């Protein structure tokens, strides 16, 4: 039986999922005027509008529409695209993996860039190197993702020819090659948070009594760093990365359009421009659930990394 803390987290996630379902359901209904008219445009005939209303079930009572929506979600049915007349799930199936791959690649680059930078800054707090490491990543907050992406395309793709200017490739190696620049753009946007968090945690961990005791016992410096300093310092860094996954996902959706990656972001932009509300509704639901799931995984990772949390859970049983 789970501890009260884990049950509380699960209940909180379930409440968040319920709110997401309600909000995405109301997405079509908050459009000013007739949703069917908004989808088809002002020039559409009344017969076409009426047909679309019947197809989307907009003429049914709101409670009936909500029950039908939830019933469809349980069956894995997110509706049908108005523009392409195919199930939304079919459209998303071919677009999901490029987005997931980009998010994972960006998260990996974030970790690979954060660890050495934070360790370098934490080694001599207040030094020139420390100030440089903390200042340079802040540029990522001020650079719009689409602009930074265009700069990288111009330099690394057009001038140097090291990476493709866009697309996704055909083979796994081509996928990795094509996603390098967009993953870098996405990672840069959250580096200031992860570097600062890991740097502060490393400084605090290095000053802890257990580190001084390990050094007094003659434990080699490398082992002190990996076993005592880094392991304890990475816990808040993991939490910060997890909490910023929403930001990471949001930037990914923008970056996909800049680099012409056939993922969920590109589909969301195209569907919004074509007023394909069922697709936008389904994508909003999936992205929100992805963020909630990532936050849950962050909690699991934090418990796995911090023995104190495991002990507290066992003690609560």
From TrEMBL:
Subcellular localization(s) per the UniProt record: Cell membrane
Its domain of life reads Bacteria
- UniProt xrefs under InterPro entries: BPD_transp_1_N, MetI-like, MetI-like_sf
Provide the alphabetized UniProt keywords.
Answer: Cell membrane, Membrane, Transmembrane, Transmembrane helix, Transport
UniProt entry tagged with the keyword RNA-binding: no
The answer to whether keyword Transmembrane applies is yes
> Membrane topology type, per the record?
Multi-pass membrane protein
Q: What residue stretches are annotated with the ABC transmembrane type-1 domain?
A: 96-298
TM ranges are 12-31, 102-123, 135-156, 176-195, 229-249, 279-298
Subcellular location, principal: membrane
Q: Which SUPFAM superfamilies match?
A: MetI-like (SSF161098)
The text of the family note is: Belongs to the binding-protein-dependent transport system permease family.
Which protein is depicted? ABC transporter permease
Q: Which organism is it from?
A: Nocardioides taihuensis
